[in-house]
Amino acid sequence: MWQNYTMTFPFPPPGYVTTQSAVSGIEVYMPAPPDTGPQQEVVDFKCPQCGATTAYSVEDGGLTCSHCGYYEAPQKTIVGRGAEQFEFTVETMQRSAQGWGVERKEIACQNCGAVASLPADSLTFTCAFCGSNKVIQRQAPQDVLRPRYVLPFKIEAEACAQIARDWLGSSWMAPANLRQISQLGKFTPIYLPYWTLDSTTHADWKAEVGHPKTERYFENGEWKTRTVIEWRWESGHVDLAIDDLVVSGTTRLSRVLLGKVQDFHLNDLAGYDPKYLAGLQAQAYDVTLELAWETGRGQMREKTRQACLSRASTSHVRNFSMSLDFADESWRYILAPVYISNYTYAAKTYQAMVNGQTGTIAGQRPVDWNKVWLVIAALLAPGALIGLLGLLTIPLAGIGIVIGGFGFVLLVIGVIVSIIIYTQGNKMDDV
Asked: What is the maximum span of the chain, computed from C-alpha positions, in angstroms?
């Protein structure tokens, strides 16, 4: 006897997903894209009230819709310096989350080479690093490490303009009309990448240490005294715990300027949430963890060397040597808030940065060299004139020698101060 068997196949088949069919009534399947796991988690920042894109509020860390005014209170947990750290292991790297955790796009600057991440619907076409409009837009990749912690912005953008104007007016070398530059108020908020590194160093050191000693000696028929250095070998051991050494994760900005605004308070570290990036630019690291550790290791080595030198019984040290081991290395990848402004004065572009957490400012400032040269001339003139007067009065019973000597001293002081002023001017104009 015949029996009917109905075989049921799962649709779509395992490993396949439905795709668009060109023929009505026919279902077509395609291989499913590879599962990227939780690293590709995407968070939507659409306003639940009107559907517009929300933006991060610097004032309290919440989300504010710029269209309808909807406000979502902040949901952040401050973890501070107790934020979890990670060891330098392959396993740790493999299980670290990747990407921004939210759909974003990038602009790649064709002028300075910088790459910045922006909100997916951003219409910005200007590079925050150099001010150029020669940029290419593309989808932000999700294959880089995701930040684990963030220092939220605390300084409002409006406050940056006043901070900058006060800073520009703080130097007498700057042109008098510099504070009236209209572009100076255009500060772009951006989260910059940083690595924080921890380690314990163990060092054995050895050096010749000099001890000043007064001795008497006989010369030309009389006893005299002199100070000599008596060298003795000393050695010791130093264990130094180095906590939260901050290393920049970008090469697109001046290390000098970044170093001046790097006074971040890590006690305000909060767990990373993509909402912090709403409406703001961010930059992924281009200094890898390995390169950051190489830089940090050099700084740790110098800190340890100074600690060893401080153990010497005097400050006179020569033939110093040190063997050093690193232990308990750990790291964090964080984002820190910075405002960047590019402004033009006399056809030259300058850059200023403001720490978005502390308000510390650093940057380049044009120099009014006419003013500087007048000051230098005023410093040199008294010594030169008095010296010339001394030469003219030498025949007058030696008075000219005294006057000339005084003029020479004034001239030397004027030259030293002029060199300092000239050096400061160069640093202001080109950092």
From this structure: 147
